[in-house]
Amino acid sequence: MPTLNLFTNVPVDAVVASDILKDATKAVAKIIGKPESYVMIVLNGAVPVAFAGTEEPAAYGELISIGGLGPSVNGKLSSTIADILETKLSIDSSRFYIKFYDVERSFFGFNGSTF
User: Fold this and answer.
1) β-strands 59-65, 3-8: how paired?
2) Per-residue pLDDT reduced to its tens digit, 41-77
3) Cβ atoms within 10 Å, residue 63
4) Nearest in space to 45 (alpha carbons), one of 79, 92, 10, 82
5) Other beta carbons less than 10 A from residue 70's beta carbon
6) Catalytic residue annotation
7) Could you tell me where the DSSP H helices lie in 1-115?
8) The pTM is what?
9) Could you give the number of structural domains in the chain?
10) I need a labelling partner for 2 at 20 to 30 A (CA). Which of 10, 28, 35, 69 fits?
11) How far apart are CA 101 and CA 58, in angstroms?
């Protein structure tokens, strides 16, 4: 159920995308404490993004989860996802925002129902 949506203005080729998806899945699962089989990562590359008035490499993320989030966990997630984006796409961590949503079960659909 943890879902990480990532948007970046950097074009992402298939090999790099696969690496990011794998690394982010493992990181989110480990840090939140949920099985990898529950984690979804959505990566959108080459999206028009301006940050601080420039179109230099930048990214925005949203992480939605049913529980497992909080100040210390969010800090670890922010740092880890920023590291992945810096390593794989050369996006400086100062050009990355991430928003966290801790939602109730009834607000998350799966398999034609809600959790």
Assistant:
1) antiparallel
2) 999 999 999 999 999 999 999 999 999 999 999 999 9
3) 26
4) 10
5) 11
6) 2
7) 14-32, 71-89
8) 0.95
9) 1
10) 10
11) 21
Q: Rounded to 5 degrees, what angle do the CA atoms 44, 65, 10 make?
A: 15
Question: What residues have CB less than 8 Å from 47, skipping those under 6 apart?
Answer: 7, 8, 9
CA of residue 22 relative to chain centroid, distance:
12
Specify the CATH number for the domain of residue 99: 3.30.429.10
Task: For the chain, give the number of residues.
Answer: 115
| Residue 107 domain boundaries | 2-114
User: What does the pLDDT read at residue 115?
Assistant: 85
The token pair that represents 74 in the structure block: 């969010």
Tokens found for residue 32: 């939140």
Return d(Cα 27, Cα 20) in angstroms, integer: 10
